[in-house]
Write a structure and sequence with these properties.
The complex is a heterodimer of chains A (323) and B (634). Chain A is of the alpha+beta class and 323 residues long. Chain A has helices spanning 2-11, 25-57, 64-99, 212-223, 232-243, 246-249, 283-296, 309-320, and strands at residues 108-115, 118-123, 132-135, 137-141, 146-152, 157-160, 168-170, 176-180, 186-192, 204-210, 273-274, 279-280. In chain A, β2 and β3 form a beta hairpin. The two termini of chain A are 13 Å apart. The chains are: A alpha+beta (323), B mainly alpha (634).
Chain lengths: 323, 634
């Protein structure tokens, strides 16, 4: 059910992605502040240009008492500017405090790690086989505070899901975090905002805000090891995966593949996109990606794979069975 | 309003044969080395200033072509015109070229050309060192474009964040070259700064006390002081990165106790003042143009000077607003927000003072003035979007989006390039002796103004819709297509405008109307000598009794009795410009060129083999000795 929903949203003009939305209290506060400052600035610009225009058309004198008046006007304008800046500064600091409120103890903690050019997402647990690892798709329950603990595996990235909150950098050797409380169910686009190399343009992710029950169901399902192949073709596909180069970089829990350089594929078929949210997860895109990812995202770390047609078909069929 | 022909050149009193003799002897004393090779010997501040200006404009054209390539790529979604590798090189080159090889050097060049004329002296105090500055700058540019032409240009962005710019993610010589060009350009900027600061403090015409210095000279002086404080930070940053890359140190490697954020602090401690280093000279140009167009002194001289000083001061206190997304303590955020907003006040004061000057003045609507009006329209937008970005929460949404791209182009093109074009139209007659064409100039302005706004205004909106900067392409279903296409069309208009400017320059050089000494009837001393000025600038050093020496002739006069058989400068006291003593400056020499060559080869060679740095140093020693021994006795 939810997969159909996600797929439908993606098919119909992608996902929600807009900087000045109100999908969380944080984003809402920022949007209010934004428009306050914006309209003050518009008013100032109009006034300055209006004064300039009037000054250009009118005929004036250069007498000494005129100088005194001009001094007063310039001083007054400076005073008004200072006052407006003070208003904006105060509003900004108040909003900043509200947005940066530390998460309480009930917050859902999720670890997000940036890689060139995809996102590793980990739902930690004290029990090791209850840890969920996935990629490029962040599921959260609605109306619960979420704290993303951010880290990077290589260069500096910056996580930005504009409808939800501002951005936060992922910096080597530094722990950063981003807190928000989504209040609208839906799928939201996110991306890397700091230039991080050739495929910075296509380093996206999806934030999927769900009803709590759906979220728990999703989490339970993600905790399972991968689905065992039910037919010989799928079994052959798995063998292609395990004996080819795939397994050196990817993990499929429940099999012998436990590479850590690339996204975890244990439940690949449950995700609505591939290639860091740059392509829909369809059979055609998946096959094309496996064969020659370099054509699609030049410079990414996935090598081209020369596979015979039956091998490729079975491999893709196997990957698409990993729900 | 007087036409050039009516102006009586005040130095050429008929029958003044003593003055004719002085003129002839000065020409002999200050003559340049002739012949093709003589170009390598130049030490005249005007020659070197012109070289900076022309070279910087060449880089402006190249950087503009890079911008055009990016706009071509982004005109439609999923375009395959540039691949991600080339795109990364192109935007890195565009930023590096425009910041390090166009904007700062062109301001240095105009300062070098005009400041000695405006303060009424004959040359800068260290003419040979000054020559080294230009050669360093030129070599840096050749090095940068050498790597780019071989398709191995730097590709980590013009602010080169580590670790992306480190060895692990940017192997190869592109980034090494980028690091070296920092050294070349910053050394050159420091040399100009030293020259001009001493010029302004110690070589002003007698009577030009601190409160009579033209506003343009104040702007340059304050800029040069900023250069002295800002450049060491980036030289440190580049040096550390160089050492991390080639010697295996760990300044920026957190795994070994280094810190990736250290780079950002060091870079932006330079990078933010850099914006003001570009922008303050432009403000000086605006003051010169407004006062010449309105035939009024700028209103609120003291406030204007204090505003410049305050801008420079605050400019060093807000580098962290480039780093709001890195996660800062609340207190720090509030401080840098306050500082970033506060800098709007001195800028506002200047805008208000200019409007007060213009109020009811019925200005002369020449091309330079049109560019000043363009400056008001666009720069105020850029300043106000800067206020928006100073707010941390707002910035966290807009940071690294096209909104920021729009903002800094409004500040840098609106705030610096528009005045610069105005300045070129204003001072071209002084530099070449001919006026730039008026009709072409109006078209140049109109197309640039429309094209600029069409290019960059939609980018604000793109930022609101979440389009990040530095992406080589975007998906067609985001709704960004129309605005991007508009931006690309605007870029085409800008290209036409720049082409018209070039046509205007080349036509006017041959066929422009003769300018005369003071075609705008302006107030400052550079207009008190012939156009173009002779090598010695003034036959007799003027004595100044007012802020507008060409408008209030009372009390002014000339210094007499200076020997003309040596290259002598009149040194005056820093505060009141009372004459102090005479100082001889050296003449043409090839040694600045030679030592730049040997040191430059060492620096460039060290990219490929570290020991070249040592070789370069050793080879430079004999040249340094040669320089020392050929220096004239004072």
């Amino acid at each position: 059910m939810k997969r159909i929903f996600v797929a439908a949203v993606f098919a119909a003009n992608g996902c929600a992605y807009e900087a000045l939305d109100r999908a969380s209290p944080e984003a809402s506060a920022i949007t209010n502040l934004h428009w306050l400052i914006f309209w003050i600035c518009v008013a100032v610009w109009v006034l300055v240009l209006a004064f300039l225009a009037v000054g250009l058309v009118r005929r004036g004198s250069t007498a000494a008492q005129d100088d005194r008046r001009r001094t007063l006007v310039v001083a007054g304008a400076t005073g008004v500017s200072a006052l407006l800046l003070l208003v904006m500064l105060t509003a900004s600091v108040i909003t900043g405090r509200a947005v940066a409120t530390p998460a309480g103890p009930g917050a859902l903690e999720i670890e997000v790690t940036g890689h060139q050019w995809w996102w590793e997402i980990r739902y930690p647990s004290s029990v090791s086989d209850r840890v969920v690892v996935t990629a490029n798709e962040l599921h959260v329950p609605v109306d619960r505070t979420v704290r993303l603990r951010l880290a990077t595996n290589d260069v500096i990235h910056s996580l930005w899901i504009p409808n939800i909150n501002g951005k936060k950098d992922l910096i080597p050797g530094r722990a950063t975090s981003l807190t928000f409380r989504p209040r609208r169910i839906g799928t939201f686009g996110g991306r890397c905002a700091e230039f991080c190399g050739y495929q910075h343009a296509k380093m996206g992710l999806l934030l999927i805000v769900q009803p709590p029950a759906d979220f728990e169901a999703w989490l339970d399902q993600q905790r399972q090891p991968s689905v065992e192949p039910a037919e010989t073709a799928l079994e052959h596909g798995r063998d292609v995966f395990l004996h080819g180069p795939c397994a050196t970089c990817h993990t499929i829990r429940g099999t012998a593949a436990f590479g850590h350089k690339a996204p975890d594929l244990t439940h690949l078929a449950s995700r609505s996109t591939i290639a860091a949210a740059s392509l829909p997860n369809t059979i055609g895109h998946l096959a094309g990606w496996v064969v020659d990812a370099q054509r699609i995202k030049p410079g990414n770390r996935m090598p081209p794979n020369l596979l015979s047609a039956p091998d490729l078909l079975d491999l893709v069929a196997y990957l698409r069975s990993l729900r | 309003m007087s036409s050039p022909a009516e102006k009586a050149p005040r130095e050429k009193a008929p029958g003044d044969s003593a003055e004719e003799r002085e003129r002839a002897e000065l020409a002999r004393t200050w003559r340049k080395r002739s012949g093709k090779l003589g170009l390598l010997f130049s030490v005249d501040h005007k020659t070197i200033g012109k070289r900076y200006i022309i070279t910087a404009f060449v880089f402006f054209l190249v950087g503009g072509l890079e911008a055009a390539a990016m706009r071509l790529q982004l005109a439609r979604p999923e375009s395959r015109f540039l691949n991600p590798d080339i795109y990364a090189q192109v935007f890195t080159m565009h930023g590096t070229t425009m910041m390090f090889f166009f904007a700062v050097p062109v301001m240095l060049g105009i300062g070098l050309y005009l400041v000695p004329l405006m303060v009424g002296t004959r040359n800068v105090p260290f003419p040979r060192l000054n020559a080294v500055g230009y050669w360093f700058y030129l070599m840096g540019g050749v090095l940068l474009y050498g790597t780019f032409v071989m398709n191995r240009g730097p590709d980590a962005g013009w602010f080169a964040y580590v670790p992306l710019s480190g060895n692990a993610y940017s192997a190869g010589h592109g980034m090494d070259a980028w690091v070296q060009i920092i050294n070349f350009t910053e050394v050159s900027a420091l040399i100009v700064a030293a020259s001009l600061i001493v010029t302004v403090f110690k070589q002003r015409a007698p009577g030009m006390s601190l409160n009579r210095i033209p506003l343009f000279v104040w702007a340059i002086l304050i800029t040069m002081i900023m250069v002295i404080f800002a450049m060491p930070a980036v030289i440190f940053a580049a040096g550390s990165l160089n050492s991390d890359r080639s010697l295996g140190t760990h300044f920026f490697n957190p795994a070994e106790g280094g810190d990736a954020l250290l780079w950002q602090h060091a870079f932006w401690f330079f990078g933010h003042p850099e914006v003001y280093i570009i922008f303050l000279p432009a403000l000086g140009m605006v003051s010169s143009i407004i006062s010449a167009s309105t035939r009024r002194p700028i209103f609120g001289y003291t406030a204007m000077v204090l505003a410049l000083v305050a801008t420079a001061f605050l400019g060093f206190g807000l580098w962290v607003h480039h780093m709001f997304a890195t996660g800062l303590p609340q207190m720090g955020e509030a401080f840098f927000t306050a500082a970033s907003m506060m800098i709007a006040i001195p800028t506002g004061v200047q805008i208000f003072c200019w409007i007060a000057t213009l109020w009811g003045s019925r200005p002369r609507w020449d091309v330079p003035f049109l560019f000043v009006l363009g400056f008001f329209f666009t720069f105020v937008i850029g300043g106000l979007t800067g206020v928006m970005l100073a707010s941390v929460p707002v910035d966290l949404q807009l940071h690294d989006t096209f909104f920021v791209v729009a903002h800094f182009h409004y500040v840098l093109i609106g705030g610096a390039v528009f005045p610069l074009f105005g300045g070129v139209y204003h001072w071209f007659p002084k530099i070449t002796g001919r006026m730039l064409g008026r009709t072409l100039g109006i078209w140049n302005f109109a197309l640039l103004f429309v094209g600029f706004n069409l290019t960059f205004f939609p980018m604000h909106e793109l930022g609101f819709h979440g389009m990040p900067r530095r992406v080589y392409t975007y998906s067609p279903d985001r709704g960004w297509n129309g605005l991007n296409l508009a931006a690309s069309l605007g870029a085409a208009l800008m290209a036409v405008a720049v082409a018209l400017f070039l046509i205007n320059v080349f036509r006017s050089l041959r066929r422009g109307a003769r300018a005369g000494e003071n075609p705008w009837n302006a107030e400052t001393l550079e207009w008190a000598t012939s156009s173009p000025p002779p090598a010695y600038n003034f036959v007799r050093i003027p004595v100044v009794a007012s802020r507008s020496p060409l408008w209030d002739r009372e009390g002014g006069g000339f210094v007499t009795g200076m020997p003309t058989d040596k290259r002598l400068l009149l040194v005056t006291h820093a505060l009141d410009a009372e004459p102090s003593h005479r100082e001889e400056v050296p003449g043409p020499s090839v040694n600045p060129f030679l030592i730049s060559l040997t040191m430059g080869l060492g620096l460039i060679g060290s990219i490929f083999w570290l020991w070249w740095a040592v070789i370069g140093a050793f080879v430079s020693i004999p040249v340094a000795f040669l320089w020392y021994w050929t220096e004239e006795e004072p």
